């Protein structure tokens, strides 16, 4: 698997981090997104759940989304 695409969304208010993540996932199997809006984590987790992607909190304001490989 290739390295994740890095998405910078610091300073952006929701829903912009989620919109940037969704756009990046069109062309990537995995992304790492930095977003400091207080509700970004919840928004990104909901986005991942909606699309069937995995969601991981990596650090404060840093999250990972990735396609889940079929069994």
Describe the overall structure.
The longest helix is centred in the middle third of the chain and has 12 residues, at about 40-50. The chain has helices at about 15-25, 40-50, and strands spanning about 5-10, 30-35, 55-60, 60-65. A hairpin with a 2-residue loop joins strand 3 (about 55-60) and strand 4. Strands 1-2-4-3 form a four-stranded mixed β-sheet, with helices on one face. With about 70 residues, the chain is an alpha+beta fold. It contains two helices and four strands, in the order E-H-E-H-E-E. Helix 1 packs parallel to helix 2 (about 40-50). It is globular and about 35 Å long. The mean pLDDT is about 95.
Key words describing this protein structure:
71 residues; alpha+beta; 4-stranded mixed sheet
> How big a fraction of the residues is strand?
25-35%
Can you count the helices? 2
Task: Give the total of beta strands.
Answer: 4
Question: In whole angstroms, how far apart are the ends?
Answer: 16 Å
Structural class: alpha+beta
Low-confidence stretches: none
What is Rg?
Answer: 11 Å
Rough shape? Answer: globular
Which percent range fits the helix content?
A: 25-40%
Q: Strand count, sense and closure of the main sheet?
A: 4 strands, mixed
Mean pLDDT: 95
Q: Strand order across the biggest sheet?
A: 1-2-4-3
